[in-house]
Design brief:
With 874 residues, the protein is α+β, with helices and mostly antiparallel strands. It has six domains: 132 residues, HPT domain (Four Helix Bundle (Hemerythrin (Met), subunit A), Up-down Bundle); 58 residues, Helix Hairpins, CATH 1.10.287; 180 residues, Histidine kinase-like ATPase, C-terminal domain (Heat Shock Protein 90); 140 residues, CheA-289, Domain 4 (OB fold (Dihydrolipoamide Acetyltransferase, E2P)); 127 residues, Beta Barrel (OB fold (Dihydrolipoamide Acetyltransferase, E2P)), CATH 2.40.50.180; 121 residues, 3-Layer(aba) Sandwich (Rossmann fold), CATH 3.40.50.2300. Strands 13, 14, 15, 16, 17, 18 and 22 form a seven-stranded mixed sheet that branches. The chain has a six-stranded mixed sheet with strand order 1-5-7-8-10-9, with helices on one face. A six-stranded mixed sheet has the order 31-23-24-34-33-32. It is globular. The protein starts with a helix and ends with a helix.
Length: 874
């Protein structure tokens, strides 16, 4: 393919990517001259370049469209919804021709005379485009900004779109030999020139177009470098060669930084996968005769390009499904007391090492009785089976292959090949999908997928003499089998706290040599697939490792238990287990008892009166200690040789930096040569601290009720955990022993209910036990927007404690929304933040905060709470 044509295709493709959004914006704001100008310039550029390159068919279509746009621009023709539909048809035809040109190097044959005749009639004033049914849509698409007031909604302009008309002729930015690759990707370093208003100076965009194949090759080389680094570290540990430890640590740090940098080049905002959805929703509304509004949150959330491509089609299908099955017609919505305009919501956010995507609507919801009848008709379950199921279990039948409740097959959906395909595609990339639905209120699907598929963290285990890797994204906890293993009809189960967990012997499943004592003396890896929990019995557990994922060889692709393979530091090739495949192969799964913990749907809440996971350990003599497991980033078993002294304090080189060690035992001494040190690693915002303890005991799930508060520094008090009196440590106190850079009493007179709004899970898990120990009942939300959902649900609190800087709706926006009126109008609001300069405090108080407390000053926060709550009681 000629280099000029390849450059033209790339530039045109980028411009067309944002054209749908611009046309939808024009439909809502017909008098927006700047938007009309953007659209006109792009079509004009396409037409002019086509003449230069000899693309006659494309030139004729673009020229006819440009004529109509020219009349819009000069104001002699009014912009209507029907006119926008006509220009959208021009854009679709241009895309069709571009696709053929890209595939064959020449314009495809086709007849455009009907479209051109229609455009010419509008241009000459002989015809007026007619509006299709459902065209009068007040708001088709919105994007909710990452911060701002609750009412701050704007037109969706997906991240990364290139402004139309940024180049008059193709720029030869793609190296020769790479230009014919359609997946060429731009990495922007500055705003596009065309985004500047007319008359202003325009800076040259500092961008470099890099072929995706180059990035993929670079990622492969980095993956090999990671494997080699792991091998060198393994050899160094085996030989105990001190001379190599320093250079190897430096190599490890450089490799990690290089890996992080290359991974960033692969990361793209999920908004790139949402670009076509506003147009899709508009077309759906017109085809179905419904009024639909699309709200998109978190479009800037980034994930790996490979994952982005794989999730694009499932998301498109789910939005179509919500528009067709989920939302009612305007008449049905009026009859149900709802607004005529139905809402489809997209939300994306990071959670740990994965991304959560929510696709929801406020439509009719899933009809349980209708699904039940369909299940019985198709013989998928019996009456007795259904009688023992909850509503959500019955609703999950929509994920079964061929299952559909649609009354008729339409061009939109209803063919019975929908949600099961979505589920399968999500699971192929190591993700899970679940739903929540209320009849008459709406349905929300929750997709949980890994951020990247190239390099992942995995737990290395052994079964039957062979080692395997289990991706940590699916590992809930690790427990010893012990006497808790029992048998029900010859099937092994584990008594794990308040449930019986089905078990799968990995050795037996893979037909390996099985140790007779494995069920009693081995380990159980508790795994989550969707909302189902089960345990995998293994013989030994090693450490977690960053592994490079390699595809499964074709000869093993029929074995669904494997998702790939990897090479360990010692050169061994091992298989990566797929928990989804294991669940399908064995049919095991126990519904986790998690409904109470997921109250409030998307609201990430936790309460001082609910059960939480606690890590038990021993440090010195006396009672065992406990800490909320959510605060602990990693458990390490360090060699004593790695511990060094700096300014009289123990430190260790950890992940390319010096991490301070804080001993809990006053008589602590560094381990002797060859000894080991158990360490609890706390990490937040790039800072790490290790708490040196004597022994890790267990992980339990208990209601943390501190019955005996203590004034002893470093401890919140004593609680009964796992049947024993256990001292609960004050993490904030111990973290301050590592350095004052981590953060910047008595019980209240009467019990009070507090809302903590904090986007960092680390600080949420720290703050809830502290306030719970002070006698408060605490609920936590992970953003301002989620806090407002609590207000809408009728929740009331005696005080609200909020961080200032958060994604979605920040603390200032939350305060303004609360003070605008409603149930929280007079609720005391306390800003908890690291921003302590006077200007920041002034803005916080103007927004509606009553107090401004440094983060994390526990004594100041408790004092402010006592003062404010006492004032409201009087």
């Amino acid at each position: 393919m000629d280099d000029l044509i390849a450059d033209f295709l790339t530039e045109t493709g980028e411009g067309l990517a944002g054209l749908d959004a611009a046309l939808l914006r024009l439909e809502r704001h017909p008098d927006d001259a700047r938007t009309i100008g953007e659209i006109f310039r792009l079509i004009h550029t396409i037409k002019g370049t086509c003449g230069f390159l000899g693309l006659s068919r494309l030139e004729k279509v673009a020229h006819a469209g440009e004529n109509v746009l020219g009349r819009y621009r000069e104001g002699s023709l009014a912009v209507t919804s029907g006119g926008v539909s006509l220009i959208l048809r021009v854009v679709d035809r241009v895309r069709e021709i571009i696709a053929g040109l890209e595939a064959t190097g020449a314009e495809p044959a086709g007849d455009d005379s009907a479209l051109i005749t229609e455009l010419d009639a509008v241009f000459t004033g002989q015809a007026v485009p007619e509006d299709a049914p459902g065209a009068s849509i007040p708001e088709v698409a919105q994007e909710v900004p990452a911060s701002g007031s609750a009412a701050g909604r704007q037109t969706a302009e997906p991240a990364g779109e290139v402004a139309p008309g940024s180049a008059k002729t193709p720029a030869p930015a793609v190296p020769a030999g790479q230009a014919d690759t359609p997946a060429a990707m731009a990495i922007p370093a500055a705003a596009e020139a065309a985004a500047a208003p007319a008359g202003e100076g325009v800076a040259v965009a500092q961008t470099l177009r890099v072929n995706v194949d180059v990035l993929e090759s670079l990622m492969t080389l980095v993956s090999e470098l990671v494997l080699t680094r792991n091998q060198l570290l393994q050899l160094s540990r085996a030989r105990n060669d001190g001379a190599l430890s320093g250079p190897l640590q430096r190599l490890s740090q450089i490799t990690s930084e290089l890996q992080e940098g290359v991974m960033k080049t692969r990361m793209q905002p999920i908004g790139n996968a949402w670009k076509g959805l506003p147009r899709l929703v508009r077309d759906l509304s017109r085809e179905l005769g419904k009024k639909i509004e699309l709200e998109m949150r978190g479009a800037e959330t980034e994930l790996d390009r490979q994952v982005l491509e794989l999730i694009r089609d499932p998301l498109t299908h789910m939005v179509r499904n919500s528009g067709d099955h989920g939302l009612e017609t305007p008449a049905e919505r009026r009859a149900a007391g709802k607004p005529e305009v139905g809402m489809i919501r997209l939300n994306a956010y990071h959670e740990g090492g994965h991304i959560i995507i929510e696709v929801g609507d406020d439509g009719r919801g899933l009809a349980v009785e209708k699904i039940r009848a369909k299940v019985l008709a198709q013989g998928l379950a019996t009456e007795q089976d259904l009688a023992g199921m909850g509503e959500r279990d019955i609703q999950r039948f929509i994920f079964r292959a061929g299952f559909s409740t649609a009354a008729a097959v339409t061009s939109v959906s209803g063919r019975g090949v929908g949600m099961d395909v979505v589920k399968t595609n999500v699971e192929k990339i190591g993700g899970t999908i679940d739903l929540r639905s209320r009849e008459g209120k709406g349905t929300t699907f929750l997709i949980k997928i890994p951020l990247t598929l190239a390099i992942v963290s995995a737990l290395i285990v052994e079964a039957g003499g062979e080692r395997f890797a289990i991706p940590q994204i699916g590992v809930v906890e690790l427990v010893r089998a012990g006497d808790g293993v029992a048998h029900i009809k010859d099937a092994p189960v584990l008594r794990l706290r308040d449930r019986l967990l089905p078990l799968v012997s990995l050795s037996r499943l893979l037909r390996l040599d099985e140790r007779p004592e494995a069920e009693r003396g081995g380990f159980v890896v508790v795994t989550q697939v969707g909302q189902n929990l089960f345990g995998i019995i293994v013989d030994r557990v090693f450490d977690t490792e960053e592994i490079v994922v390699k595809p499964v060889a074709p000869i093993l692709r029929h074995v669904t238990m494997f998702s790939g393979n990897t090479i360990l530091g010692d050169g061994s090739v091992i298989m990566i287990l797929d928990p989804n495949g294991i669940a399908r192969a064995t049919g095991v799964g126990a519904e986790g008892v998690q409904e109470e913990a997921r109250r409030g749907a998307a609201i990430a809440s936790s309460s001082s009166v609910e059960r939480m996971s606690l890590l038990l350990f021993r440090a010195g003599n006396g009672a065992p200690r406990a800490v909320p497991l959510g605060l602990v980033a990693r458990l390490e078993d360090l060699s004593g040789d790695r511990i060094e002294m700096s300014h009289g304090r123990p430190v260790v080189q950890y992940r390319g930096a010096l991490m301070p060690l804080v001993p809990m035992n006053d008589s602590w001494m560094p381990p002797a040569a060859g000894g080991r040190q158990a360490v609890l690693v706390f990490n937040d915002g790039g800072r790490a601290m290790g708490l040196a303890v004597d022994e890790i005991l267990d992980v339990v799930e208990e209601t943390l009720k501190i019955e005996n508060g203590q004034d002893r520094p470093g401890y919140l008090g004593t609680a009964v955990i796992a049947g024993r009196a256990t001292e609960v440590i004050d993490c904030a106190w111990w973290l301050r022993q590592a350095g004052e850079d981590w953060f910047g009493g008595s019980r209240p007179a009467a019990p009070a209910r507090l809302l903590v709004v904090e986007d960092s899970a680390f600080f949420r898990n720290m703050l809830v036990p502290v306030l719970g120990a002070a006698g408060y009942e605490v609920v936590a939300a992970s953003s301002g927007a989620q806090a407002l959902k609590l207000r809408e649900a009728g929740e009331s609190f005696d005080a609200v404690i909020s961080d200032i800087e958060m994604p979605e709706l920040d603390g200032l926006g939350l305060a303004r929304a609360a003070r605008d009126g409603g149930a929280w109008h007079t609720t005391p609001m306390i800003a908890l933040t690291s921003r302590q300069e006077p200007e920041a405090e002034r803005r916080g108080r103007e927004a509606g905060f009553d107090e401004y407390v440094p983060k994390f000053d526990r004594d100041a926060l408790l004092a402010v709470l006592r003062s404010r709550l006492a004032a409201t009681q009087h």
